[in-house]
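[Automated response] Your request has been received and processed.

Submitted sequence:
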Amino acid sequence: MLTIKRVPTLVSNYQEDVLEVSVLPLYAFKNDDNEPIENDIQTLPEEECQMSFLNNLLLGLWEERMSQGLFRYDVTTCETKVIPGRCGFIAQLNEGRHLKKRPTEFCIDKVLQPFDENKFNFTKVGQEEVLFRFEPSTDYKPQYFSGMRVNGGISPSIVAINVSPIEYGHVLLIPRVLDCLPQRIDRDSFAIALHFAREVADPFFRVGYNSLGAFATINHLHFQAYYLSVPFPVEKAPIQKILARMGLGGAGVIVSKLLNYPVRGFAFEGGNGSTARDLSDAVVNSCISLQKKNIPFNILIAQCGKKIFLLPQCYAEKQALGVVDQELLDTQVNPAVWEISGHIVLKRTKDYNDASEEYAWKLLSEVSLSEERFEEVKGYISEAAGLQAEDDKNINPEKEIPDSPGPQVASHMPPDCLVLQ
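Generated structure:
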């Protein structure tokens, strides 16, 4: 059974309420970062294939919480549609999230800020909101325990519901929750997020991250994830290889830039024979560099962890400078990872009814760095991740560039979360 209680604890000579977690369900994921990244649920031996169990576990527990009335609104009743046009932007009308979501409680002009125990943080979540622990296995095999006592002094990584969901199955992954880490990317925590995407092993389940200054609303380290039954537009955007790092036998990491997309961004993929660690290290080193240089960014982990989008942005900076079109500001859309990826959450019926590709393109173009600034960031990433310049000779910008393939419309998702075409 799940037991979480509040107890006074002496921390640095003052009293602080923290969560004492005694027993939690535990999903222990296969902890092998050196396995080739192309090995997935379809290629692993049947006895090792437990990813579908995690998928079913997450959805079953999430639906159980929904039946208990723990969400602030019923997200399955929110209208959703694909906007006509080449990109296939997705619009959702979600008035409840606007009215009931927690406000941002920190300044938006600094990517790195210390944790503040006086602000809302995830040690204050209700016990019923926690679904399970998600931590590495000790024997390289995925396992599930319905109740596992937390050893003293260990801060568990947990998966909890997002009580203000954007979509079906919307959860939070909170690494080492009791350590009260601020919202910043570090090597170990990002590896957990990548494993989460790989273990769920569903191409319609994506993991996202917002830095401070890129519309993270809580300064306590967390990732978000949910199911969406159609491809994100960013997943379909054509790409051009610009950087690469090759190791022994040709293994390495390839970095491409988005083409024909309103936001300039990077797509990281593993090369032939590369490992999850290779890919994770390249992304993490890049993010750490951007954090140090105070450049806000968003991350989307897609394709079951095989493709990772790193999207630097400047919308909040433009807002502060007063250079964003008032018509866009009036929609009150904060373009975080989901919006930048092409799933735009709208808060007014009028905006939803009038949603067009022109509007979506205009909004996301305001998010994007200039070409000059993007090239500067490319240089930072190249240096931080040890990448070399690469040109894809097969891409001719003067000609029509075909879209990249994305996952097809899901047939296994519940009818309530399918997107109208």
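Summary generated for your ticket: Confidence is low (pLDDT under 50) at residues 1-19, 39-51. The longest helix spans residues 51-67.
If you did not submit this request, please reply to this message.
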